[in-house]
Design goal:
Strand content: 5-15%
Radius of gyration: 20 Å
Helix content: 40-55%
Largest sheet: 2 strands, parallel
Number of helices: 6
Strand order of the largest sheet: 1-2
Order of helices and strands: HHHHEHEH
Structural class: mainly alpha
């Protein structure tokens, strides 16, 4: 059985491709190819990697994936007042459209302050 604890005995925060590789008995590069470009790995190793990833509850780190491309597949939506009912449908439609395009929607509120909106937009752009 694969040990899901850190060296100090505490549970690990998240599985990595190295954890998957160890459990699957393959190289980390095979794990990376199987998860990111499945067509580059034959069926059997890909299946073993996918099973190990599932067993370890692996979730890709979107920020790590963004390093080579600079793309996080994240869309920011800033609304002036999140409690205003007019925004409920806008937020729901934006989230649905983002999810369908494999993007994550990040929501922020400006509290009806143009200055705060500018700060939030600048901060989001640089994160």
């Amino acid at each position: 059985m694969y040990d899901l604890t850190a060296d100090d005995g505490r549970p690990r925060a998240a599985a990595t491709i190295y954890d998957i590789a160890k459990l699957a008995g393959v190289n980390p590069s095979t794990v990376s190819r199987a998860l990111n470009n499945p067509g580059r790995v034959t069926a059997k190793p890909r299946e073993i990697v996918e099973q190990a990833a599932t067993k370890l509850n692996y979730r890709a780190n979107v920020f790590a994936r963004a390093l080579p491309t600079g793309r996080t597949n994240t869309i920011g939506l800033i609304v002036s007042d999140i409690t205003n009912p007019i925004f409920f449908d806008v937020i729901r439609v934006a989230e649905t459209a983002a999810a369908e395009a494999d993007y994550t929607l990040v929501l922020a509120e400006s509290s009806e302050s143009p200055a705060k909106e500018l700060v939030v937009a600048r901060d989001a752009r640089h994160s």
